[in-house]
Amino acid sequence: MTGRSPDEVSWRVQAAVYGIGLFSTSMFYMASVIVPLYVPMLDPSPILLGVAVGARNVLPLFLSIHAGALMDRLGARRVMIVFAALGVAVPLLYPAVPWIWALIFFQMLSGLSDSMGWLGAQIMIGQYMKGRTSYAGRLSFVIRFGHLTAPPMVGAAWDLYGPWGAFGCLALWGFGTLACAALLPPLPPMASKRPPFVPPPMPNSTRPPPMSRASER
Question: Phi-psi bin for 5: left (phi > 0), alpha (psi -120 to 50), beta?
Fold first, then answer.
C-alpha cells in the first residue's frame, strides 16, 4: 500500500506557502510597471518621482528585523494575514488620493506588506517544512512564474482600464497572498515550551569498581 510519507508536507500546506511567495514577491514587479506610469500624472519634480519609486523600501529597511521578532512572538501566519489584508486595501488608495505625498506614504505601506509576505514564506519553510532545501528550491522555482506573468498582466490592465484597473489588479493579486495565508493550518505549540533536557543516567558498566578492603589498607 502506497501513501505519503509521515515526514512529507501535505500539498495544501505546500501550495499555500508557494502561493504566498508567488503573490507577495510579484507585487514589487507589478508596482514597478504602474507606479512610474501613474506618478507623472501627478506632475511631480524628477526628485519626487525618484523618491516615490524608492519609498517602497523605506519601511522594510528599518523594520525587517523587528518584523521577524513580531512573527516569532505572535505567529507568522497571524502577522501575515494582517499585512496581506493591508496589501489588498492600499493599492486602491493610489488612484483615490491623487497626491504625490500620499502616494509616497502608500508606497511605504505597500513595500512593508510585500516584504512581510516574502519573509513569512521563508519562515514557513522552516516552521511547516522543517527547513528542507527541497521545499525551499520549489518555492524559488514557483515564484518565478509570478515574476514572469504579473508585470505584463498589470500592464494590460492599465492599457484596457486605466489606473483604476491597474491598481485594482494589484489589489486582486494581493488578495492571493491573503487567501494563501488563510489556508495555512495553525501551528502546534512552539518548541520552546519543551521541558528542559535531562541527561540520562550513567550506565553501570562505566562506573568504577568498588574498592576492596585490601586496597584500602
Answer: beta
Rounded Cα distance between 163 and 90, Å, is 14
CA distances to 39, 97, 142, 151 from 147, in Å: 22, 28, 9, 7
For 174-211, letters b (16+ CB in 10 Å) and e give: bebbbbbbeebeeeeeeeeeeeeeeeeeeeeeeeeeee
User: Where do the domains of the chain lie, and which CATH numbers do they carry?
Assistant: 11-185 (1.20.1250.20)
Question: Sign of dihedral through CA atoms 156, 36, 97, 173?
Answer: positive
Residue type, 98: P
pTM: 0.80
The phi, psi pair for 154, rounded to 5°, reads -70, -30
157 touches 169 (CB < 8 A): yes
Write the pLDDT tens digit of every residue in 34-80. Answer: 999 999 999 899 999 999 999 999 999 998 888 888 888 888 889 99
Cell readout for 71 is 512573527
